[in-house]
Design brief:
Length: about 100
């Protein structure tokens, strides 16, 4: 691929939804996910738009990253039985593609 030939510290990533992004080669989904959880713990419930703004990423990218992180957390709970990993807190995140109505 042309991108690899340039030897830049970025990679082209394709999410399951088909979204394509350029990201740093050392990007770590788990680290980014933990940053989002930390942000939500500090600031309470936030919309995906507010999360995207806080991390200076697009709403689409914030949604995709959150889906990847939540999917990996669910797999961890189901496959390895680490239900007590977050026993002291409950984090509920709702990801919706519908915009909220303005009142």
């Amino acid at each position: 691929m042309l991108l690899e030939g340039l030897r830049l510290p970025v990679t082209l990533r394709k999410f399951e939804s088909g979204v394509l992004v350029l990201q740093l080669a050392d990007h770590n989904d788990q680290v980014f996910g933990r940053k989002i959880v930390g942000f939500l713990e500090q600031h309470g419930g936030k919309s995906i738009l507010e999360i995207a703004q806080a991390f200076n990423v697009s709403v689409v990218l914030a949604t995709e990253q959150l889906k990847v992180f939540l999917s990996s957390l669910l797999s961890l709970f189901l496959c390895r039985g680490f239900a007590d990993l977050f026993a002291d807190r409950v984090v509920v995140v709702v990801v919706s593609s519908r915009p909220r109505r303005q009142s």
